[in-house]
Amino acid sequence: xxxxxxxYRDGIHEAWQGELWGQAFFERLAAATDDADRRAKWLVxxxxxxxxxxxxxxxxxxxxxxxxxxxxxxxxxxxxxxxxLPWHVAMERMxxxxxxxxxxxxxxxxxxxxxxxxxxxxxxDHEVALKRFAERELAGEAxxxxxxxxxxxxxxx
Length: 157
What we know:
This protein is mainly α. Helices cover about 75% and strands about 0% of the residues.
């Protein structure tokens, strides 16, 4: 029988793997675009995923090497499909993908031991920052869209 503690640890491990995958996803999106502005934005989002994953890494109980991002979710097909979307559609889709993750990570935060709360709060905040990025992009605030993302990157480091 899985305990609440086991479910929390599994959730943290899954979130950590998701950050590894997200970093690879955004890096590959950046590499696949010819638009310099979008490439730069994708790379900042990859940096956010990396910083968040690095913060989560000490919470992972096992010392095994992380799996390659392709090992647990199809990466290249996701990059091809997402990269083919018009920008506004990609931003709209990003927002819908993030809502369940925000809820899931808020649930992890509620379960987090006191000594892990700051790190798990960054996990929540990084998803919120990604959503704010997409909202600002859709609102025509492209010059300030990365501000929430950069703020979380700084806190995560």
